[in-house]
């Protein structure tokens, strides 16, 4: 069901709950031209850092890929169910630590991008043997998430894409994707795993040259064809994924909220038309106005989801060494949270600013009779309404003045 933007003022629902995932904190921060700078840490050490952050009031939730928590052995895909295995013992320790710290494990995602067997895709791989491996790994990830209390499962498009269009069995590719996502909801239902839903995290490219689900529109269209479309939503990565190709996360987020399909968002920062920067919010050359505007839009549309980080420290701000392996990550968590909260505070100020609201009303001038005719669906009422064309065509909107006012507020004026 499509939702409408609030009328008659803005509700105050800011100060959203925050999730800091394992892959952000554990990231050693490498790039295609050099290895990770930070010394690696274990999933239990990441858990300890999250517990510290919770104690300081910085975060509420966490999330992970399956492989952020425990390694995957394709020969022993059910090791998570063996209470004597090291995998089970690690998961048990993580669950206990998170529980004592009152950190809710919110989301699990299946890593279908790291292992070389998935180099040509996971659930959309043209080889059915590899799709079987992907399906088995997904089921294991769903079990792990359920054990830790996850509410959502996320499918990131990862390596489901192409560089050479003639290598793709196009007549079957989107069936493969649908089958892979239907397997998730089937397994959740049959095993009574208790997930609230699943999300598609789309991306235009990287690590593949092109992705099969590059935009929010592609994702929602595929979701409409699934066996349980109500189970599925989207989680745009704001600002990164849309702006990698010059699109805007502003429209993507608003569209997803209007469709009732935005369960949560991933946040970071991005310079448009570049590789996936994955900077913390507000950090980098661009993105201040865009990010604040998205939080403002979520406020206007009374969105009730939560915010999850999907970024990492600047590689320049890391350093190798035993002491840095934890301290740099501590500083990163604080930087990410404080940068997000700075944007959130500014968005709330804009939402409550009476001068901004007054300027907006001049642009959105409402004629109740015209609104009624359009909303009624009556063709005769629409046909009967008479507009004063000469008056309308001469009206000045003042969008530039509104935008300057917004800029002044961002500058603290």
Structural account:
With 413 residues, this protein is of the alpha/beta class. The protein folds into two domains: 336 residues, Divalent-metal-dependent TIM barrel enzymes (TIM Barrel, Alpha-Beta Barrel), CATH 3.20.20.150; 55 residues, no CATH class. The protein is 45% helix and 10% strand. The protein is built from 16 helices and eleven strands. The strands form three sheets. Strands 2-3-4-6-8 form a five-stranded parallel sheet. It is globular, with a radius of gyration of 23 Å.
Topology overview:
Elements: E1 18-19, H1 22-26, H2 43-55, E2 61-65, H3 66-69, H4 86-100, E3 104-109, H5 128-148, E4 152-156, E5 161-162, H6 170-191, E6 197-201, E7 210-211, H7 216-223, E8 232-234, E9 237-238, H8 240-243, H9 249-258, E10 264-267, H10 288-300, E11 306-309, H11 324-352, H12 354-363, H13 368-376, H14 379-384, H15 389-394, H16 399-410
Parallel strand pairs: 1-11, 2-3, 3-4, 4-6, 6-8, 9-10, 10-11
Antiparallel strand pairs: 5-7
Give me a quick take on this structure.
This protein has helices at 22-26, 43-55, 66-69, 86-100, 128-148, 170-191, 216-223, 240-243, 249-258, 288-300, 324-352, 354-363, 368-376, 379-384, 389-394, 399-410; strands at residues 18-19, 61-65, 104-109, 152-156, 161-162, 197-201, 210-211, 232-234, 237-238, 264-267, 306-309. By secondary structure, it is of the alpha/beta class.
